[in-house]
């Protein structure tokens, strides 16, 4: 059976070149990057080369890159480091602006800060989005308060792929003198990123979303931004993130960033063509289906498809049995009983949200994968619809 992986928004396969970059630091190159001897200096060299590569991917200075354990830590470090710390230093609670469709790493962090109590907590405004999942920048302007300390708006949504108007929001943040953070975990390596052009002060990314290893990420911290450390201990990462650097993973992130930057336009165009072909074929073959967020700018790889008459969790399992991997929503929400908060925020009913699947492509996908997907998905959907229709038939009484 040909296996097809269409869940790259959940995680990506590690590129062979990334693995090759990591292997020496899992064996012979065993030094601690803080040690002064040759072993340590070799490890330090790997960390600094990776820092330069990540900075190059997003248009930053190497000194503005802080390595973390992943996107979740980066989001927490940004939000708590600015929002929580600012509230704790003043006699006001402080105020954060975000959106209703953020990743759980942002939403749950904001909610945790709200619960801290009157002295240490913050107030949070959760802004709505359009039917296509896009934030109106003017809503950010209207939500600003004298005590607003942070705006945090994701760049690309993990379920829909929709891109937010960060440049406009960045200008509003600059006019108000408010720190601006973006979770770019789903856009880094897929679309061009330039932190100066976007107007962000803080940006989160994660290696495993761009063909790097799991368990490592980065936070861009613009020079001059005051950030309270999330972790305390040694002097790693210029006192911004304590703990011994994960040298093999950081080396892998650096290589992944280097490759993503080198092939961004080429991969983006090819993957977008595959995604568009997949969408057209599914819409033609599955009556009543539609693409959630289709009217907005999206990352080139993401398709969130609403298929009336099916239950997405069951459909994902049935597709997996046919060798095709996709998702019913965000990977971090797997097993949740509630429908997607993102799909609810764009106006879908609970039934519609539970009938939506996410198909996300990556570098490894081919024309043959799409051809096979266009055979498998409509056939499985037809089978599910037939079963559902049969269950709705009235049962004759003897």
The structural domain count equals 2
User: Class by helix and strand content?
Assistant: alpha/beta
CATH topology category name of the largest domain: Aspartate Aminotransferase, domain 2
Percent of residues in helices comes to 40-55%
Q: What is the C-alpha radius of gyration, as a whole number of Å?
A: 22 Å
Q: Low-confidence parts, pLDDT < 50 over ≥5 residues?
A: 392-398
The number of helical segments is 13
Overall mean pLDDT = 93
Relative strand content = 5-15%
| Broad shape | globular
Topology order in helix (H) and strand (E) letters: EHHEHEHEHEHEHEEHHEEHEHHEH
Number of DSSP E strands: 12
Q: Terminal Cα separation, in Å?
A: 45 Å
CATH superfamily (homologous) name of the largest domain: Type I PLP-dependent aspartate aminotransferase-like (Major domain)
Strand order of the largest sheet: 2-8-7-6-5-3-4
Main pleated sheet? 7 strands, mixed
Q: From the coordinates shown, what is the CATH architecture of the largest domain? A: 3-Layer(aba) Sandwich
CATH class of the largest domain: Alpha Beta
Explain this structure to me?
By secondary structure, the chain is of the alpha/beta class. It is built from 13 helices and twelve strands. The chain has two domains: 4-11 and 264-388, Aspartate Aminotransferase, domain 1; 16-259, 3-Layer(aba) Sandwich (Aspartate Aminotransferase, domain 2). It has helices at 16-22, 38-58, 71-88, 104-114, 137-143, 166-176, 195-198, 236-239, 247-285, 312-321, 341-345, 350-353, 367-392; strands spanning 4-5, 65-68, 95-99, 123-127, 148-152, 179-183, 202-206, 217-221, 290-291, 302-306, 324-325, 356-360. The strands form three sheets. A seven-stranded mixed beta sheet has the order 2-8-7-6-5-3-4, sandwiched between helices. Strands 9-10-12 form a three-stranded antiparallel beta sheet. Strand 6, helix 7 and strand 7 form a beta-alpha-beta unit. Helix 3 (71-88) runs parallel beside helix 4 (104-114). The termini are far apart.
């Amino acid at each position: 059976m040909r296996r097809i992986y269409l869940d790259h928004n959940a995680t990506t396969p590690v590129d062979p070149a990334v693995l090759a970059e990591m292997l020496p630091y899992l064996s012979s190159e065993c030094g601690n990057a803080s040690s002064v001897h040759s072993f340590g200096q070799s490890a330090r060299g790997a960390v600094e080369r990776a820092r330069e590569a990540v900075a190059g991917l997003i248009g930053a200075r190497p000194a503005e890159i802080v390595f973390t354990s992943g996107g979740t830590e980066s989001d927490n470090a940004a939000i708590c480091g600015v929002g929580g710390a600012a509230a704790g230093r003043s006699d006001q609670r402080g105020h954060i602006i975000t959106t209703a469709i953020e990743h759980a790493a942002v939403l749950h962090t904001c909610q945790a800060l709200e619960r801290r109590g009157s002295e240490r907590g913050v107030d949070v405004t959760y802004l709505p989005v359009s039917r296509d999942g896009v934030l109106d920048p003017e809503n950010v302007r209207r939500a600003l308060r004298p005590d607003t300390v942070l705006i945090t708006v994701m760049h690309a949504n993990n379920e829909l792929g929709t891109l937010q108007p960060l440049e406009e929001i960045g200008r509003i943040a600059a006019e108000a003198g408010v720190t601006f953070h973006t979770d770019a975990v789903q856009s880094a390596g897929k679309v061009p990123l330039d932190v100066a052009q976007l107007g962000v002060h803080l940006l989160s990314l994660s290696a495993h979303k761009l063909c790097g290893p799991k368990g490592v990420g980065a936070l861009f911290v613009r020079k001059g931004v005051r950030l309270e450390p999330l972790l305390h201990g040694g002097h790693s990462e210029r006192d911004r993130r304590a703990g011994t650097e994960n040298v093999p993973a950081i080396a892998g992130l650096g290589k992944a960033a280097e490759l993503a930057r080198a092939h961004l336009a080429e991969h983006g165009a090819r993957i977008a063509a595959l995604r568009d072909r997949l969408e057209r074929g599914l819409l033609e073959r599955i009556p009543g289906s539609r693409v959630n967020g289709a009217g907005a700018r999206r990352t080139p790889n993401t398709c969130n498809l609403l298929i009336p008459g099916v239950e997405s969790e069951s459909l994902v399992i049935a597709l997996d049995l046919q060798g095709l991997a996709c998702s019913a929503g965000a990977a971090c929400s797997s097993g949740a009983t509630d429908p997607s908060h993102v799909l609810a925020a764009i106006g879908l009913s609970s039934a519609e949200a539970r009938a939506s699947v996410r198909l996300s492509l990556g570098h490894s996908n081919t024309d043959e994968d799409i051809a096979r997907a266009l055979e498998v998905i409509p056939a499985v959907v037809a089978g599910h619809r037939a079963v559902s229709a049969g269950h709705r038939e009235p049962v004759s009484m003897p």
